[in-house]
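Lab notebook, bench 4. The sequencing result for the construct came back, and we need a structural model before the next group meeting so we can plan mutations. Quick request posted to the team channel:

Model the 3D structure of this chain.
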Amino acid sequence: MFFILLIVLAAIGFVVQYLLGILQIKNFSKNYIELRKRGRVAIGRKPSIFRSGTLVLLQLNQQNVIESARYMQGVTVFAKFKELKGLEGRKLITLSNNNLAGYNRLQINAILDAKKTFEVIQSGGQVDSIPSPFMKVVKHVETYFKKARVSK
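Done. Here's the predicted structure in token form:
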């Protein structure tokens, strides 16, 4: 009986997380479409499992100057987009670690990822997908076992 109750609770939790995930995707779509109507949008990502994941949307004009910036940062599906102040009027290409001092590390990494993604797209390349945190762990374990086999 306890096992069945546990399965039912897990299933309910999965469905609730799925529905909340859909709401978060709708929030992303709404913000992306709103910025896209005003110009090009560069997207930066910094996924994480145990720390806050961060997503940045940078709306650019024809001279690649940031006109508007938003970010979503959080661990749960309750994270929503917020305005990211201080980047307006700055050229995306000139951003670096040195001139992003007022932001937290995850925001800086997401902003720099947006810059990198923008540069790749501008040069006609294809953006590499960022492996999920779970896949990073799997690759780390694979590398560990390969090293262990080689040393034998």
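The radius of gyration is 19 Å.
Will bring this to the meeting.
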